[in-house]
Design goal:
The chain is an alpha/beta fold. The protein contains 9 helices and 14 strands. The strands form 2 sheets. It has an 8-stranded mixed beta sheet with strand order 8-9-7-6-10-11-12-13, with helices on both faces. A 6-stranded mixed beta sheet has the order 2-1-3-4-5-14, with helices on one face.
Length: 316
């Protein structure tokens, strides 16, 4: 039986790792820490390109658990043909909630209050006052009401917003009110002053924010994307930005990284951050807790958390 567990954080930095596994450190370097065929648990390196993350998969013939350190698992989903059947793929639900929700609020406030303009004026040593919208009394729509979407709402509460509407793949009740299904977006979009997108990238959500979606947003509304770049149709968004009808604050783009010379860089009314929703000081302690708990569950044959799919299953 294979016993190796590949970790992208040095094993000595953990507390409470279970006995029964041999822990090897690999953070995407050129040399593997051992034979991939001996790997039973693969914790995917964080903030590495997709080609690095999938590099050992084809040789991991005995892997049983793949644990990402991201909420989205689109990199692994795209490489399912490299993974043997019977492998459980789990995401890192909960690891990035605080950091990503903080950034969603930061981008919202910075865009509404004109902070990018203040920075440019400061660079010119120019005192440029003016009147700007507040978040208070605004209607906010959260598209993608999972753990991150819920954390976003937690941070909106003290800002005296008029209303928060919630949308997820399917409707349900929540502690704060109803969560509407995606089918209700056409009705909800025209009512929102701010639309915050925090949905995972799936076949359903790819291109979800298209020309029709954007056209239903009210004049002057703000789109905030902390999900994945491909959830938004970049060409359609550019058209709305260039005619001045909408503004946007984007932590993710399509393409990504956004290449020099791309028209999105210079589009009016857009604030861009370079996909920094997750990598903060809050990441490491939460990542270590999730990995430690998951490995204890794996060794003790307890149900794993945050299961996305099992490869080769007809239920996927």
């Amino acid at each position: 039986m294979t016993r190796d567990a590949w970790l992208p954080i040095p094993p000595k930095d953990f507390q409470g790792l279970p006995e029964g596994l041999d822990y090897l450190f690999w953070d995407g370097g050129q040399d593997f820490p051992g034979d991939p065929a001996d790997c039973a648990v693969y914790v995917v390196p964080y903030m590495k390109r997709q080609n690095v993350k999938v590099l050992p998969l084809q040789r991991m013939r005995n892997v049983r658990l793949i644990q990402t350190l991201t909420a989205g698992v689109d990199d692994m989903i795209a490489a399912l043909d490299l993974i043997v059947p019977g492998v459980t793929l789990c995401n890192a639900r909960g690891v990035h909630d605080a950091s990503t929700a903080e950034l969603a609020l930061t981008l919202t406030l910075a865009s509404l209050r004109g902070v990018p303009g203040f920075v440019r004026a400061q660079q010119r040593e120019h005192w440029e006052s003016g009147f700007h919208p507040a978040l208070a009394d605004k209607s906010v729509l959260i598209v993608g009401y999972g753990a991150i979407g819920s954390a976003v709402e937690d941070r909106l509460v003290p800002f005296e917003v008029a209303r928060v509407a919630r949308v997820a793949r399917s409707g349900r009740a929540s502690a704060r009110g109803p969560v509407h299904p995606l089918t209700e977006l056409p009705r909800l979009l025209p009512e929102a002053d701010v639309v915050i997108v925090s949905t995972p990238l799936t076949d359903t959500t790819r291109g979800l924010v298209d020309a029709e979606f954007l056209a239903r947003m009210k004049d002057g509304a703000l789109l905030v994307n902390v999900a994945r770049g491909a959830v938004v149709d970049t060409k359609a968004l550019l058209a709305e930005l260039e005619n001045g009808r909408l503004t946007a604050a984007l932590d993710v783009t399509d393409p990504e990284p956004l290449p020099a010379g791309h028209p999105l860089w210079q589009a009016p009314g857009v604030l861009i951050s370079p996909h920094v929703g997750g990598p903060t000081s809050a990441f490491l302690p939460r990542a270590k807790r999730v990995v430690t708990d998951q490995l204890n569950r794996f060794v003790n044959r307890e149900p794993l958390r945050n299961v996305i799919l099992t490869t080769g299953s007809t239920d996927n």
